[in-house]
Each structure stands twice: as C-alpha cells, then as structure tokens.
Amino acid sequence: MTIEYATRYRTTSHIPAEPGRPYFIRKGEGDRAHLFGDLVTVYAGGEQTENTFNFFTCEGPKGDIIPAHVHPDTYEVFYVTAGAVRLFVEDTEGEQQERLLGEGDFGFVPKNCPHAYRMERHHSRVVGVAAGPGGTFERFFENLGAPTERLGLPTEPVVPPAERFERVGHQYDVRFLPEHRWHTE
C-alpha cells in the first residue's frame, strides 16, 4: 500500500513530502502525469531531496520528437531501460550531436545545452535524473501535462495550449526553443 500525502503541487501524492525519511514505491506507483503520448512517473523530487535532484521515468510509444528545450540551471541524464530513444543535444559552442540509445545506454546533458529526444520504438522507457543549482523540475510534467492516477499511457495525446509552455517552463527551469532546428536528423 502506498501512503498518500498532499503537497502544494497536487491534491494527493504517492511519495512522502518530508526530506530525510526513507520510503519505498512499487513499480509505477509514484506521481504520474501524461504529457504528449508519454507517461511520466516521479519517484523522488525536490520535496524529498531538499531540491538537490529528482528521479523519474518517462515511457511512451514510438513518436514525434519532444520539443527542443534548454535547462539554464539543471543537468539532466537519460538512462534507457527499455526500447530505444534518440537523444539530440547541442553543446554550448553550437555543435550538435545525436545518438540512438538502446537498453542500458546513458546520455548526459549539461545545463545550458539545447536538447530533445524521440522514442524510436514502442514501449520505450527512460530513467531521468536532474539536478542543479536551480532545484528540480519534476513537477513540470504534471503542470504542463495532466496529473493522472491511471497506470499506462494516455489514450489520447495530452497536448497543452501553446501559451502554457512558456509560463510553466519558466517556473520549472525549462525554456522551450520553438525556432531551434536539428541539423543531425
């Protein structure tokens, strides 16, 4: 059984809000949100780590590229546990790279580096960790997308209105780059 806690981010949370308290969560029972065609599940965030890092999974079907964005104050890692994910990244000098990451592969994106990704196979899953001086951004997913109690992918894609991208992104250290083009595709 999962203990539910109310937080300032959602009416109920499946992860305890108190830092310094050990806890356990069964597979998929963290705080879930649908965004685009994906399911994001947060297992640890700022509330548990005093805003030092977060730990989440993102799983989804083969699909479109997630929009290019940058985290001015946050480092992010991508560790693929199922399927395949193509990671696009640009360093601070403008050099672009892309890599197809399969199960067990790892990608690191420093702060201030534009990046995007695309699920390349159905049932792909990425473990994400983000940390930096600006805190954590795990509540971005439910504030831009839609919190859900459902296990599994959304039945219809959750596409937020355009005006919400900038407002929610600014709040969670995510700056979208709508004009950004990848030359590696």
Automatic annotation (TrEMBL):
<dbReference type="InterPro" id="IPR011051">
    <property type="entry name" value="RmlC_Cupin_sf"/>
</dbReference>
<dbReference type="GO" id="GO:0051213">
    <property type="term" value="F:dioxygenase activity"/>
</dbReference>
<dbReference type="InterPro" id="IPR013096">
    <property type="entry name" value="Cupin_2"/>
</dbReference>
<feature type="domain" description="Cupin type-2">
    <location>
        <begin position="61"/>
        <end position="119"/>
    </location>
</feature>
<protein>
    <submittedName>
        <fullName>Quercetin 2,3-dioxygenase</fullName>
    </submittedName>
</protein>
<dbReference type="InterPro" id="IPR014710">
    <property type="entry name" value="RmlC-like_jellyroll"/>
</dbReference>
<keyword id="KW-0560">Oxidoreductase</keyword>
<keyword id="KW-0223">Dioxygenase</keyword>
<dbReference type="Pfam" id="PF07883">
    <property type="entry name" value="Cupin_2"/>
</dbReference>
<dbReference type="InterPro" id="IPR053146">
    <property type="entry name" value="QDO-like"/>
</dbReference>
